[in-house]
Amino acid sequence: MLTDREFNRIVFYVKSHYGIDLSQKRVLVSGRLENYLVRNGYAGYDEYMEKVEENPGGEEAKNLVNVLTTNHTFFMRESVHFDYMRAVILPQLKVKAAREKDLRIWSAASSTGEEPYAIAMLLMDYFGIEHSAWDTKVLATDVSTRVLEHAVKGKYLKEQIEPLPDKWKQRYFRPIGEGEYQAKEELKREVIFRQFNLMNPFPFRRKFHVVFLRNVMIYFDENTKYQLIKKIYDYMEPGGYLFIGTTESLDREKTDFQYVEPSIYRKQGM
Length: 270
Ligand SMILES: C[S@@+](CC[C@H](N)C(=O)[O-])C[C@H]1O[C@@H](n2cnc3c(N)ncnc32)[C@H](O)[C@@H]1O
Hints:
The protein is of the alpha/beta class. Helices cover about 45% and strands about 15% of the residues. The protein has helices at about 5-20, 25-40, 45-55, 60-70, 80-95, 115-125, 145-155, 160, 165-170, 185-190, 220-235; strands at about 105, 140, 155, 175, 180-185, 190-195, 210-215, 235-245, 260, 265.
């Protein structure tokens, strides 16, 4: 049984390190952690949390994140964003970045890779034979090492790649066994996966043209959400675009981002 005190200790730890607000998620916390503790021979939550708190960069802290994050995603989720990229943003960027030929696109909570791989396929498709002249590598980050390991392998079930256009499936995936497919090297090398906690200071040298920050702020409280939005704003090129989840929104009083259409925002400037 998870006591109030133990629950609050976990909630406090996860909130202060990762921004994730689990205060209303008691069933999720006990459901997911109970098994983990038993499997790993812990006598109770306190013994486990001692271990986590003793070394926040260590293995047990990593496992806590892997167990407590919710990583649901799928290929072509919120496909209106991909349509908008192709119809509006990429034609603009092709002109704007014509000299450098360097696009900086960040999938900031990339989970198991479906989002950044889809962006990468869209970019290759859009640029066609000109693609080799451009650097369009997508940066994909997530706080969970478990999902990143999955993403790097790039293995998906047949049903999972189903929403992709046939020509993308054929060109970028190869069958590797019973109902399973793997992203080809050609696709993999277009995505750079890194572990990154959005609560940490940003280490990036250059600003982004496009940021996908979809379906992650739902786990943060208001303050944390707008602090993160401010940091992202500062790390975007003038005129850069931000995508958030289609069920999310930004209050125009609390951000400098300009509203473009539901779930699509833009930094001022050109
Ligand atoms: C529901 S998934 C969203 C995946 C994808 N963006 C989409 O819309 O389908 C949310 C992801 O956010 C990640 N996440 C949660 N807190 C984070 C943080 N502080 N820093 C980085 N990633 C975080 C989780 O690990 C999870 O993989």
